[in-house]
Amino acid sequence: MNIDLKIAQAAVLEPIDKIAHKAGIPEEYLEMYGKEKAKINIKLMETLADKPDGKLVLVTAINPTKAGEGKSTTTIGLADGLSKIGKNVMACLREPSLGPVFGLKGGATGGGYSQITPMEDINLHFTGDIHAITEANNLISAIIDNHIFSGNELKIKKVTWKRALDLNDRQLRTVQTGLSGEKRIVSREDHFDITVASEIMAVFCLSKDLSDLRNRLGKMIIGYNEDDEPVYVSDLKITGSLIALLKDAINPNLVQTLENNPCFVHGGPFANIAHGCNSVIATKMALKLCDYVVTEAGFGADLGAEKFIDIKARENSLEPDAVV
């Protein structure tokens, strides 16, 4: 058997607008990112409100090895298998983080002949969603420090908000910032999380729409004031700016399997720090479009799958019809 990369590069892909048509997505909601990937405007959900949901299949595993346990490969293969026997099906996966992609685990687009494509694009910059989440996260950090520099009206005493970068960079886990020597600048210890472990990624994937996302962003705690009371993002009055950065990222990404079946790849929270599932928006949109939706939850059954059931499903009236 060829290696995954050669198999993916040899694949004959269909134009993404043809894949969208196969999934029942009208052309006016299709936002092309080249010939092989597209975003689906979230406004499509308004037209699907009266359609019944399809069946939801969750893929999980025992506690995974360092290289993973094959949940994505199984998810894609199961979706292709259901299509092979004539079922109308979509897969829903998380977007890979550059940390694991350049680490031991590698990419997250399946393996062998059970892959989604374009593999390199999905594993790397894709449609820029993770970049947008990184910038939104770091905008909050920049505003916090600028607020303190400019007089600290909110009397912020302790900052708990961390900066983000979508790479494994051990040297940045704990850093000292504010060393430029500028007058009134406050030096402090700071920290970097990988973007997919950020709180923005978590709330992004649990949000139902832009309004819900704005509300969730505003409720995030960035630190504590001199009276040990929490200070929220809404106190900084920047939720509009954050939404401006995330307005395109909120739209699910459409790609295809090697067998030319539709797949949403949207959102990518880690399961050890967040809930480890693709976005609610992509899952609910897929359920309206297809008879069967196959999705995964990160890590093992006692982590990602439990969080899928207890958090994602419970908050959004979802109920898996089967667990593999």
Give the key terms:
324 residues; alpha/beta; 10-stranded mixed sheet; 3-stranded antiparallel sheet; 12 helices; 35% helix
Quick summary of this structure?
This protein has 324 residues and is an alpha/beta fold. Helix content is 35%, strand content 20%.
User: How would you name the oligomeric state of the polypeptide chains in this document?
Assistant: single chain
How much of the sequence is in beta strands?
15-25%
The average pLDDT score comes to: 95
What would you report as the Rg, rounded to the nearest angstrom?
20 Å
Biggest sheet architecture: 10 strands, mixed
Q: Would you identify the regions where 5 or more consecutive residues have pLDDT less than 50?
A: none
Characterization of the model:
By secondary structure, the chain is an alpha/beta fold. 35% of the residues lie in helices and 20% in strands. It has twelve helices and 16 strands. The strands form three sheets. Strands 1, 2, 3, 4, 5, 6, 13, 14, 15 and 16 form a ten-stranded mixed sheet that branches. The chain has a three-stranded antiparallel sheet with strand order 7-11-12, with helices on one face. The protein has a three-stranded mixed sheet with strand order 8-10-9.
Task: Describe the secondary-structure layout.
Elements: H1 4-10, H2 16-22, E1 30-32, E2 38-40, H3 44-47, E3 55-59, H4 71-84, E4 89-93, H5 98-101, E5 110-111, E6 114-117, H6 119-123, H7 129-149, E7 156-159, E8 163-165, E9 174-177, E10 188-194, H8 199-206, H9 210-218, E11 221-225, E12 230-232, H10 239-246, E13 253-257, E14 262-265, H11 280-289, E15 292-296, H12 301-315, E16 322-323
Parallel strand pairs: 3-15, 3-16, 4-14, 4-15, 8-10
Antiparallel strand pairs: 1-2, 2-13, 5-6, 6-13, 7-11, 9-10, 11-12, 13-14
Helix pairs in contact: 7-10, 9-10
